[in-house]
Design a protein that fits this description.
The structure is a single chain. This protein is of the alpha/beta class and about 475 residues long. It folds into 2 domains: about 5-180, P-loop containing nucleotide triphosphate hydrolases (Rossmann fold, 3-Layer(aba) Sandwich); about 185-475, no CATH class. Helices cover about 50% and strands about 15% of the residues. It has helices at about 5-25, 35-50, 70-80, 95-100, 105-115, 140-150, 165, 170-175, 185-195, 200-210, 215-235, 240-250, 260-280, 285-300, 310-315, 320-330, 345-350, 360-370, 375-395, 435-445, 470-475, and strands at about 55-60, 90, 125-130, 155-160, 175, 335-340, 355, 400-405, 415-420, 425-430, 450-455, 460, 465-470. The strands form 2 sheets. It has an 8-stranded mixed beta sheet with strand order 7-6-8-9-10-11-13-12, sandwiched between helices. The protein has a 5-stranded parallel beta sheet with strand order 2-3-4-1-5, with helices on both faces. Helix 1 packs across helix 5 and helix 13 packs across helix 18 (about 360-370).
Length: about 475
């Protein structure tokens, strides 16, 4: 038995709760509100405790900086009040591998020793909270073995989104993945301004916008919600929209008072993703890893879709195949959202994909580095596209409930959302009172149920075109 590991686990049991309180409170000591994903994760826990389910392994992947440790800390501290503290353990593998050069197998063996019983012989529940699992390259094998050894052990683990690339089929059969995304606008306001969303309003807007049978029904449902929507916005400064797009999607940004500090921190985060998460996959040589940041700069600064054939010479990578592999990993790491061109399989191969950022703040940080931060208003259209792609990924793509493409034809719309192979909706988002031309053009070519133009204008309906104009203030509440 490794004495250093044993002492570390004893310290975690004794001091862990006090350390984790710092993750759930602001500088004034006030508890952070619970995000939407907390409710999902709490239900998994409650269902296990009550015997409603045997599901006892939850994996929470997500982009660095989205608040995974905070949610884990909230769950841990609530659970500690209900069970023997000895049977509730939190460990960060980032810390454990760095401070004591340990691994998950050693940690679990030491914990068994402290419990005084093997996991197989446990008659009461044991709860493990493992943060940053990607720091142990064999985390999946260690936790799979533990899962199979005892039905009394409930496992929560978090990691960078890249851990999904490292997950073997045996884990996929046993664990539930609950992806964690950057903040929505209501979550941003809840955390930053303590303005809470109106209960049920998000789902009502979502049902109206995406699940109506036609544009007229969608418009009528939205009119019925107008009072509640206006009530919410009466409490919110519209300038908060700009703050949200610039830095409000990543909760760790709230600790800084200067935007430049935020962007420096985000660029440090990008370096960690590239040099730790992506490097750990052992798929690229050091030269290629060094060029990934340049590729991200080009994508952030691009006003149009970049040709895959031109990217190798622009970035300095040896071939378009390498570029494709890098883009695929950046997508899996939740840095980028890939939007395929709409059409046949052949068209998808010959036309370039559109790559948007999972967080608009990442685009802003990259633009700041190349000296274009002052051009926020000229880039706002792309930031809104990022925000829309984040929303659609969170609500549809991430759960497999929908597919997203874009119209690659000249003057085509930003997005074509297909919902469960049953419905297609054309979406265009932008600033100003954006006209309907792009949505109309796409709908002339592609069969769709109706179209949506998201802009700064009022709620509107154009029945002859089957198009609704959705105010940005409505869209941001979903």
């Amino acid at each position: 038995m490794n004495k250093n590991v044993l002492q570390y686990i004893q310290g975690q049991i004794a001091q862990g709760p006090y350390r984790l309180r710092g993750h759930i409170t602001d500088p004034q000591g006030k508890n952070y509100p619970q995000r939407h994903i907390y409710v999902k994760l709490q239900k998994h826990l409650d269902d296990f405790i009550s015997g409603k389910t045997e599901q006892r392994w939850i994996i929470v992947p997500g982009l660095r900086g989205v608040g995974k440790t905070t949610v884990l800390a909230q769950l841990f501290l609530k659970l500690q009040n209900r069970f023997d503290p000895l049977r509730v353990l939190y460990v960060s593998l980032d810390e454990a591998t760095g401070l004591i050069n340990s691994n998950l197998v050693e940690i679990l063996e030491s914990y068994e020793s402290i419990l005084g019983e093997s996991f197989e012989r446990a008659e009461r529940p044991i709860f493990l909270f493992i943060d940053e699992v990607q720091y142990d390259s064999k985390w999946d094998l260690a936790l799979k073995s533990l899962y199979d050894r005892s039905k009394q052990v409930f496992i929560f683990c978090t990691g960078s989104s890249a851990i999904e690339l490292q997950t073997n089929p045996d884990v996929l059969r046993r664990a539930v993945f609950e992806k964690m995304y950057p903040l929505s606008f209501p979550e941003f306001q809840m955390l930053r301004q303590e303005i809470y969303p109106i209960t049920g309003l998000k789902d009502q807007i979502k049902q109206a916008v995406y699940f109506s049978s036609n544009s007229a029904e969608a418009h009528d449902k939205l009119i019925a919600l107008e009072k509640d929507i206006l009530q919410y916005w009466s409490r919110v400064d519209k300038m908060q929209i700009q703050q949200y797009l610039m830095l409000g999607t990543l909760p760790f940004a709230f600790q800084f008072t200067n935007p430049n500090q935020v962007y420096e921190a985000i660029n440090g985060l990008l370096d960690k993703i590239i040099l730790k998460d992506i490097e750990s996959l052992k798929s690229f040589d050091f030269k290629t890893l060094q060029l990934i940041k340049r590729l991200l700069f080009l994508l952030a600064d691009a006003t149009d879709v970049l040709s895959l054939a031109k990217l190798p010479s622009l970035v300095g990578m040896e071939s378009s195949i390498t570029i494709q592999r890098v883009l695929s990993v950046l997508e899996q790491a939740a840095l980028l959202i890939r939007v395929l061109p709409h059409g046949s399989h052949k068209g998808k191969l010959t036309k370039p994909s559109k790559f948007l950022f999972m967080s608009p703040a990442i685009r802003m940080s990259l633009l700041g580095i190349v000296g274009n931060e002052a051009t926020f208003h000229t880039r706002m259209g792309k930031l809104l596209e990022d925000a829309a792609a984040l929303h659609l990924n969170r609500e549809f793509l991430g759960s497999g409930a929908g597919a997203l493409s874009y119209d690659a034809a000249q003057g085509g719309a930003d997005f074509i959302l297909q919902i469960a192979n049953r419905k297609q909706i054309v979406i265009e988002i932008g600033i100003g009172e954006k006209d309907r031309a792009q949505v109309r053009k796409t709908m002339e070519r592609i069969s769709c149920d109706y179209g949506i133009v998201i802009n700064d204008g009022p709620l509107g309906h154009f029945p002859e075109d089957k198009i609704i104009c959705l105010p940005l203030g409505y869209f941001l509440l979903m």
